[in-house]
Amino acid sequence: MSTVEKVLTLPARQEAHRDGYVGQLSQFWGLYARELIKTFRNPFVIIITFAQPFMWLAFFGSSFANVPGGAATLDKLLHAPPGTGYLQFLLPGVLATSMLSIGMFGSMSTIQDKRFGFMKRVLITPTSKATVYLTKALGSATRGMVQIPVMIVAAWAFGIPFVGTPLAWAGWVLGLVFLGVGFSAFFLAVTASSTDWQTPGVISNFITMPLMFASGALFPAQNYPSWMQTIANYNPVGYAALLGREVVVYGSFDWIYLGYLALFAVVMLVVGTAVASRYLKVE
């Protein structure tokens, strides 16, 4: 190829690359909108999504209502300032654990699309596997975000005091977004090559319970044995709970926790996109 031909071909290649990028972006928004429509057009899903936070606070949060020794014993148990109720301590932990479980539903939605042929129809178009994967991960995380305002309303209804600045609360919500995106990306990457309905549930049950209880989300990690504290030191669920607890209980904000959650989300997205681009299978 002559120098003149190379010069003439280069703009055409750049234009094709730009058109491909714009096309993937358009397909991303279309598939992402589909994920949201699938979630919110089902009244049963909406009812369960709204009711679950109230049930967590009503049943689990009331488990220490009659603890022997009263408030003094509870203060020692929670390692929190005097007068801190368990509901106030629990609120950040419940929101953190809810972000842990949303990835399972994204995996089930992906397998449903495979089984009913939608995924095959999408992948015969110029839509890349990475685009499909990212829409599923972010759609699943967005589904989990619905619980945040509901949980805050539930906390207000149960009389939980609100402290912290609006900036601190915004940072906490951002941390929950990072956590939800990270776990959605993780679960989708693990189940990328599967078409079995049972796989997401089995993997979720295997992973969710250890991460939830070894996180400090429901109980202070200081009360754990040393091996559980080691898990909690690297558990992103625990960092999300600690971030929220700094806001709700102490009225402060720790940027290190937010940075850890952001790093977790980025790593999971990068690794998950690479895995899905290679191993995402239709059948």
The portion of residues assigned to helices is: over 70%
SS summary, helix count:
12
- Give the low-pLDDT segments: 3-17
Quick one: overall form? elongated
- Number of DSSP-assigned strands: 0
Averaging pLDDT over every residue, what do you get?
79
Strand content: under 5%
For the record, the count of structural domains works out to: 1
End-to-end distance: 43 Å
Radius of gyration: 22 Å
Structure description:
- With 283 residues, this protein is mainly α.
- The chain has one domain.
- The protein is built from twelve helices and no strands.
- The protein is elongated, with a radius of gyration of 22 Å.
- The relative contact order is 0.14.
Identify the notable features of this structure and list them briefly.
single chain, 283 residues, 12 helices, disordered N terminus
